[in-house]
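For the sake of transparency, this paper describes our internal protein records without simplification. Such a record has a labelled line for the sequence and another for the backbone structure tokens. Nothing more is needed to write down the fold, since each code stands for a local backbone conformation. For reference, a complete record is included directly beneath this paragraph.
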Amino acid sequence: MAKNLGALNFGYLGVLQNDYLIFCALADFGTATLVLAFFGRRATHGQLLVQIFQLRFFLAITSMLLMCLFAFTIRWHHPAFRGELILTLGLIFQHAFFDWYFICGKFWKRFLISKVFHTISYSAIMGFALLYLKLDKIESIAFVMIFAAIPAWGFGVFSAFNKRILIFRRRTVYFIKLMLNKAFPFALASLTSFAYLPIGIYAADVLAPPEFLAAFNFSYKLIMLASGFMISFLSSSLIIQHETLDSHIHLRDILSFTFFITILSSPLLIIPQFVLKILFFAAPWTASLLETSSFCLRLLSISLILQAIRLPMISTMLKEKQIWKYVGVILIGGIANIAMTFGMVTLTSQFHLIPLFTLSGDVVITVIFFVFFFNKKRLAW
């Protein structure tokens, strides 16, 4: 993609993909977590299955309409405008649309087939489009991204779809209202998370030259990928929390895990240019682009260390179902991050420090978590 689009348009594609992820979170609205937690295997059959699918389709269609509205109001003159409109269809044809069904029913073989099927179809279709057809327009690539997800989506339809889903009743409306009310804190936490690292790419798009956005996008993608892996560590930490009766958070555990993450992320700090050249092997690198992207990668990688520091505290809070306190902390940090990033760049015109300002939210919530548990006298060596 970077080779076909060029660095500048690849940066705009990063903005488009970020928009899409936000509307994907809106289309989920925390309901997948809620279904897994509340219903389990019961969600895979009977009227409950029908109602959950109706809820998911309702949220997907609502998000599609909101994304179209966003495109016509915010992205009207943006290079990603047409791609934005095309990707609205992706909110329905998500390859992960049926994941909750496979997980709730413990249909692990079908779940594995779905993922392998998606990997093969996505790689083959995108490879053909980029290497053979050499598509070099944002909207063309957006269309192929949707098309590449349809085979796995079709497999989910074949496995789980029921024609009764098309029949809405009054109790379906009550069910949707109830689920949205219960899922609201999960949705708010998920949506607020976009006020952290992703806010940097929006600041670069609005306040910096296109060349800086292009450089920032390369480093941003790597950090977001690494942050995704951190979710696996969070899940493991939650399982461990449920298996222990110790209510204290041990500083030695925080230090050991932080040291582990620091070692893993050290190449991003020490040899960022080498990492960028290896992972973005086909990108049209120039000396200036590579230097700026390396600078951004060094700063943004500090976010991984801050995430590691607060991970045990987050898992403890979630285990104890202090959802609203968790959402409150995330919200405060998100607001502080937006104000700091946009405010400082606007005041100082130092757009090259956007990666540094983007870390302010990470710092704020890490400090708040430490103060919270320190006041509760729950920190121990």
About this structure: Residues 210-243 form the longest helix (34 residues). DSSP finds 18 helices and two strands in the chain.
